[in-house]
Amino acid sequence: xxxxxxxxxxxxxxxxxxxxxxxxxxxxxxxxxxxxxxxxxxxxxxxxxxxxxxxxxxxxxxxxxxxxxxxxxxxxxxxxxxxxxxxxxxxxxxxxxxxxxxxxxxxxxxxxxxxxxxxxxxxxxxxxxxxxxxxxxxxxxxxxxxxxxxxxxxxxxxxxxxxxxxxxxxxxxxxxxxxxxxxxxxxxxxxxxxxxxxxxxxxxxxxxxxxxxxxxxxxxxxxxxxxxxxx
Length: 231
Fold this sequence. Notes:
With 231 residues, the protein is mainly alpha-helical. The chain has two domains: 2-59, Arc Repressor Mutant, subunit A, CATH 1.10.10.10; 65-227, Up-down Bundle (Four Helix Bundle (Hemerythrin (Met), subunit A)), CATH 1.20.120.530. The chain has helices at residues 2-8, 20-27, 31-43, 64-77, 82-103, 106-121, 126-143, 147-160, 171-189, 193-214, 216-220, and strands spanning 47-50, 56-59. Strands 1-2 form a two-stranded antiparallel ribbon. β1 and β2 (56-59) form a beta hairpin. α5 (82-103) packs across α8 (147-160) and α6 runs antiparallel to α9. The longest helix has 22 residues, at 82-103.
């Protein structure tokens, strides 16, 4: 019912919801039930609950990290190995790159190109380089024009960067990723759907091979929720 209120009234992030007293009356719920509901929504990224006189529940904006956390819980309960997530990306992302080449707006093309420029700038800085890497894959998925796939790919990317599992990206590997992204971005910019598909497929196969050969333990390890869920 709280989520219904948020979506039906189109409440933007940062909107303060009703007080606990008002919610108890409106929803005819016990205090414990209401607080559990608010806690669940906060864990899911839907709300932020602030303490103090000016506090209370505020509408938040769940993102790919929040979705990845929820997805990670289900993946762990199914003992899903890390390599199956890489395989899923290997199947999905080439097709999204092709769609991006056909449908990308000039604004999204500019964001894709800017992420590649950012990777070049931060080539020697692994943390910022990987942030640009995330931005690139999210932008390509967004360019395909399907919000579900954009959210799914962004979430899978959060999980499969593999750093909590010990997967690292030395300078040589980062340079290879930058070259791969450049090829995909150039094809999208040229509206070359087949070229974008081929370049992304090559990129994902190289990533798959890299993790399998260099980090075999992580490759076979089942996904753990604690490695993904927002802290």
